[in-house]
Write a structure and sequence with these properties.
With 279 residues, the protein is an alpha/beta fold. 43% of the residues lie in helices and 14% in strands. One fe (iii) ion binds next to loops.
């Protein structure tokens, strides 16, 4: 199969599969490499390194860093970062520590909307994972107030929705700066999926230009949930801004469609990112 899956999640954040399983699955698929990009944590690095030695494929240690721009969530992928770089580590810790409080405030919003979801139940659903909107959505579905998590997001929880509470996150350009200062390479994750996910009220191009000025190296134009229009638009934008075009599965290990390696980045592009880091 070849190529690199540059976007994967594990049980260290909201994925259903372990780091060991992900690395082994990537090797079994014949991928050249896999990036570990759990949300806002570098905790999987030790396990990922050990799994890489066993599997004999390249494992790129990274993170999917949550930023926020004007009430819009923006995710920035950072590869080859030093987990010991304090300004970044402190920001990741803060995001982690504030999650339960934010989830509680979202529960409050649902109560105001007449949907008496239980915080205890939300915490149970999250288990060891960092508590987030998907768990809140699941609790609302359980309550019978919506038919699917999709519906909960569309009606209540999408960015700017009536139950949405933003995170106290850094701006996307500051996120790029921190990842680069940590010795990493920053790539804008799934640019077509912000805001209402139609691309009409999505991320303004000016924000991407600011990220570029801060040292952005690539755009994940090839994401499984992108439409053909998203892909074409962000490929063109990457070329115009002289950025790499990357691809990843955004594997969470949930459902038949959600397969590791279903989107891969060619080796030449990974080499370009590596050179970018050295430069
Ligand atoms: P949180 O980190 O708590 O803000 O939750 C973010 C997660 O919620 C993302 O990783 C997605 O899995 C999910 N999500 C965010 N927006 C939407 C949306 N509009 N529709 C479906 N899922 C979404
Ligand atoms: Fe996720
Ligand atoms: Fe994401
Ligand atoms: Zn992701």
């Amino acid at each position: 199969m070849g190529g690199y899956d540059l976007h994967t999640h594990s049980t260290y954040s909201d994925g259903a599969t372990s780091i060991e399983d992900n690395v082994a699955a990537a090797a079994a698929l014949g991928l050249e490499g896999i990036a570990v990009t759990d949300h806002d944590t570098t905790a999987p690095f030790a396990d990922a390194r050990a799994a890489a030695y066993d599997a004999g494929i390249e494992v790129i240690l990274g993170v999917e860093f949550s930023a926020e721009e004007d009430g819009l969530s923006v995710h920035v992928l950072g590869y080859w970062i030093d987990p010991g770089y304090q300004p970044l580590a402190a920001e990741l810790d803060r995001l982690h520590d504030e999650r339960p409080d934010r989830a509680r405030r979202i529960v409050g919003r649902f109560h105001e909307l007449g949907i008496p979801v239980s915080f205890t139940r939300v915490r149970q659903l999250a288990g060891d994972a960092p508590i987030g909107r998907p768990h809140l959505a699941a609790a609302v579905v359980e309550l019978g107030a919506a038919a699917s998590t999709r519906e909960v997001f569309d009606r209540y929880l999408a960015d700017g929705g009536p139950a949405y509470v933003p995170k106290h996150a850094v701006t996307p350009d500051r996120a790029v700066e921190l990842l680069v200062a940590a010795g990493g390479v920053a790539v804008l994750a799934h640019p077509g999926l912000y805001g209402d996910r139609t691309g009409r009220q999505g991320l303004p191009t000016t924000v991407i230009e600011r990220m570029c000025a801060a040292g952005l190296a690539g755009i994940e134009a090839e994401h499984p949930d992108h439409t053909a229009e998203h892909r074409a638009h962000y490929r063109d934008l990457a070329v115009a801004l002289d950025l790499a075009v990357t691809a990843g599965s955004d594997h969470h290990g949930k459902g038949a469609e959600d397969r590791l390696g279903r989107a891969t980045t060619p080796r030449e592009v990974v080499e370009r990112l590596r050179r970018w880091r050295a430069a």
